[in-house]
Structure formats: C-alpha cells, structure tokens
Specification:
single chain, alpha+beta, Ribosomal Protein L30, Chain: A, elongated
Amino acid sequence: MAKRSTKKKLRITLVRSPIGYSKRQKRTVRALGLHRLHQTVEQVDTPVLRGMIAKVSHLVTVEE
C-alpha cells in the first residue's frame, strides 16, 4: 500500500520570460522545472526550493 505524501506542495508558474536576465537566473528557472511561459509545476515545499523561488521571484508566481 502506497503512503500518502503529507508534505505541502507549491504551485509555481512562470509569468515573465527569463530572456535578458543572467544565466544563473535562467538556470534557476530551468531547475524549478519550468520551460515555457505560463507553465505551472507542483513541487514539494522545502527550504532549498524557497531559496530558488526567492532568487527568481520577479519571474514567477507561487500558490500554496
């Protein structure tokens, strides 16, 4: 029987293009699993993920 994950998830949506920003920010957006505008991914909420989101907060929106 599979265990149900009780960890909180975040919905992250890319709302601005990373074109014109540093390579580091482009790589961070890619590492979040985002490839194109208005794409939404769900990730487990961790301190590492929160730090990545903070670095590109001007490019993404986050829902809990």
